[in-house]
Amino acid sequence: GEALEVTREVNCVTDFIHGCEDQLQKLKKQKEKGVLYGIPVSIKDHINCKGHISCGGMVKFLGQVKEEDSVIVQVLKSQGAIPFVKTNIPQTMINYDCSNLIFGQTLNPLNHQKSPGGSSGGEGALIAGGGSILGIGSDVAGSIRLPSSFCGLCGLKPTGNRISPSACSDRTFVLAVTGTLGPMARDVDSLALCMKALLCEEMFRLDPTVPPIPFDEEVRLRGNPM
């Protein structure tokens, strides 16, 4: 409900992920409760979710419904999280604003005259507006860091290849800097919890190209970069 209200105001959600209720019922029956048990998570547009498009703000991808969840979405689900919406991005994602010809302009919830930043601008706007408590964005040249800054949030660009980029629809670009998926939230503890959840056996099994290094709580508490 909160997400609906926020997107009516700032136009940040592109799609609601179906099957949330079914997933919640399935989770309740599981004996093992994951690290993110019951937490709704918003997902940036280009990260593949089964039964949904990942259009990158481009008309040519509108008909391509994805047949399976990306690795990160599978891992989130295995940890008990509930991916519930997909969020807006600028066309092609190489932009510090957040608008495209399909879904239109996303506004900054703190000031509607301003941009929420990009390219994870829909995530920034939704979380800052109170419609999500944890989101997954991506960053090559500031796409998590800029909207986090513009919207007064916390965001983490992890080291390249720390989290599986498998099944994201931005492989059309060959870039000198490694793009990486990462969490966005209102506080650092939420980012740490999300990283702890993602860096698990399930991810290392689903994507053997990711170095199987678990989350190091001691390094985080020493205040060194994660």
Describe the protein in words.
Residues 6-212 form the Amidase domain. Belongs to the amidase family. This is VDHAP protein. Keywords: Hydrolase. It holds the Pfam family Amidase. This protein has a single domain (2-223), classed as Amidase signature (AS) enzymes (Alpha-Beta Complex). The relative contact order is 0.17. It has a six-stranded mixed sheet. It starts with a helix and ends with a helix. The chain has eight helices and eight strands. With 226 residues, the protein is an alpha/beta fold. The mean pLDDT is 92. Helix content is 28%, strand content 15%. The chain has helices at residues 2-10, 20-29, 71-78, 121-128, 145-150, 188-198, 201-206, 217-222, and strands spanning 13-16, 40-44, 82-87, 99-100, 104-105, 134-139, 154-155, 180-185.
Q: What attributes characterize this protein structure?
A:
hydrolase, 15% strand, fatty acid amide hydrolase activity, 8 helices, AS_sf, two-stranded antiparallel sheet, Amidase signature (AS) enzymes, alpha/beta, Endocannabinoid_amidase, 226 residues, amidase activity, 6-stranded mixed beta sheet
